[in-house]
Amino acid sequence: MKVSKVVVAFAVSSMVFAACGSGSLSAEEKKIAENLAAEFETDGDFAEFADAEAAECIANGMVKTIGVDRFEELGVTADEVAEDPDFTEDEEKQLISATFDCLDAKELLSETGGVPEEIASCVVDEVGEKDIKSMMEAAALGEEDESMEEKMEEATTKCVEE
């Protein structure tokens, strides 16, 4: 299964996810989210870095973000998931943002960057979790934010020296 570059970006990054529930999804939304989560769990790229809780969190966020009608247009239903849904660029941005709602920035830095936990914690405290997630969202979309990269470098240098 391929879910555009959204899933690939996360598989490559080997991100760690915090648990999320299905919250306020309708019965129809829950069925689609469960189908997506099941697909994620069996997808080799995705399964390498994410567990069932992460798959559920991401699937729920995707369904809340895109909606049942649009998923059905893309061939994603409670019974099947299209091979490569053709998300618009705006939808991809929304999906990436929804996915990052499932992330813990300290674990993200530690796991994906190989940064020791104490330094990752310091960097997140210095830069702020929201800014780190914004930077990772931009990176997943192939965008660069030079001011944020400088901020990360400064924080990393400060945290390593402490």
Span between N and C termini? 45 Å
- Rg over alpha carbons: 16 Å
Mean pLDDT across the residues is: 77
- Helix coverage percent of residues? 55-70%
Unreliable spans are: 1-22
Per DSSP, what share of the residues sits in E-state strands of 2 or more residues? under 5%
Gross morphology is elongated
Order of helices and strands: HHHHHHHHHH
Q: State the total count of DSSP E strands.
A: 0
**Helix/strand/pairing class, anyone?**
mainly alpha
Total number of distinct structural domains: 2
In short:
This protein is mainly α and 162 residues long. It contains ten helices and no strands.
Describe this entry's structure for a reader.
The longest helix has 16 residues, at 27-42. The protein has helices at residues 4-13, 27-42, 44-47, 52-66, 68-73, 89-100, 105-113, 117-127, 129-140, 146-161. The protein is built from ten helices and no strands. By secondary structure, it is mainly alpha-helical. The chain folds into two domains: 4-100, no CATH class; 105-161, no CATH class. 69% of the residues lie in helices and 0% in strands.
